[in-house]
Amino acid sequence: MASADGATYKAAGVDIDAGDALVRRIAPVAARTARPGADARLGGFGGYFDLRAAGFRDPVLVAATDGVGTKLAIAQALGRHRDIGIDLVAMCVNDLAAQGAAPLFFLDYFATGALDPAAAAAVVEGIAAGCIAAGCALIGGETAEMPGFYPPGRYDLAGFAVGAVEREQLEQPSAHPGDILLGLASDGLHANGFSLVRRIVDGEGLNLAGPSPFSDELLGEALLRPTRIYVHPVLAARAAGGVRALAHITGGGLVENPPRGLPSGLTLRIDAGAWPLPPVFAWLASHVAPEELARTFNCGIGMTVAAAPERVDALAAGFEAAGESVFRIGEVLEGEDLVLDGLQGWQR
């Protein structure tokens, strides 16, 4: 029997020195995300956040966690890692904003078989960019090197965000019939439905590094456009008054997400013809039934806002002033079942 004497962790596939070098490399990146309440320094056993220094008096904490699904496979196939980090942050902080919470801090989990410091650093650079856009601090994370568990060149990501809302602001007026549903435009697929997208790409024999069938970009670049971060305009709208309910359009698409947060006995009518279907979704509509499209993808709407009728014009103007494209896409109704009109216009 061979002796185990002299065996090392590095020989087993885990390079602690590479991990330490990565921390040193990304520490200045994380430092750029500092905000009141957190200095965003890395390297300790945990990250601190001072709620009082952030200006909160009687806060309720709100937490969210998410990943980016199989969009990772496209990023890794093309070696384009930065924007996937923005996705990771956006998927979490948009959920917080939909709860009315301002994002405070973020942590990430990066797991791989063998650490590629350049790829990992690019991901963290994207995470930091997302944190800066959302106004939260990157205060920590975990890099897990797991040889034999992940194939070469593959990694997985998870993100964790914590936000806060003042207790007195926690409850918004409940929606009621006649409220208007506004939709904020998405920046593309965001980070949902990619298992279906990849199946269509493979079925058509398309090359991710080749031309896109729906735009002037390369296909992979178009598919990897990062998730839009709605935090600041959504929180400003909520503070301005008239917002009844918010929904981040992620898994479940337009069918499952907008009704969330409505009181029992209320539903929505959404007019699918009230906004232009972006080219990527028009392309998908040639492969997917309209009902499946609406249940799987955001279809061009990344966040919905149920608003009091007398506040709709002011809220829409505020969103537009913040750089958002906003559409009136429906209304709140009595009932239990979502009404989704105009889907026939998506058929190709």
What does this structure look like?
The chain has 348 residues and is an alpha+beta fold. The chain has helices at residues 16-31, 71-78, 82-98, 117-134, 194-204, 219-223, 231-240, 253-256, 279-284, 290-296, 312-321, and strands spanning 59-66, 102-112, 137-145, 155-166, 180-185, 243-248, 266-271, 301-307, 326-334, 339-341. It has a six-stranded mixed sheet with strand order 6-8-5-9-7-10. The protein has a four-stranded mixed sheet with strand order 1-4-2-3, with helices on one face. Helix 1 runs parallel beside helix 4, helix 3 (82-98) packs parallel to helix 4 and helix 3 (82-98) packs parallel to helix 7. The model has no long low-confidence stretch (mean pLDDT 93).
Briefly characterize the structure.
This protein is 32% helix and 22% strand. It has 348 residues and is α+β, with helices and mostly antiparallel strands.
For the record, give the distance between the C-alpha atoms at the N and C termini, rounded to a whole number. Answer: 67 Å
Radius of gyration over all CA atoms, rounded = 22 Å
> How would you sum up the major sheet?
6 strands, mixed
Number of strands: 10
Within the largest sheet, what's the order of strands? 6-8-5-9-7-10
Regions with little confidence, pLDDT below 50 for 5+ residues? none
Layout of helices and strands, plus pairs?
Layout: H1 16-31, E1 59-66, H2 71-78, H3 82-98, E2 102-112, H4 117-134, E3 137-145, E4 155-166, E5 180-185, H5 194-204, H6 219-223, H7 231-240, E6 243-248, H8 253-256, E7 266-271, H9 279-284, H10 290-296, E8 301-307, H11 312-321, E9 326-334, E10 339-341
Parallel strand pairs: 2-3, 7-10
Antiparallel strand pairs: 1-4, 2-4, 5-8, 5-9, 6-8, 7-9
Helix pairs in contact: 1-4, 3-4, 3-7
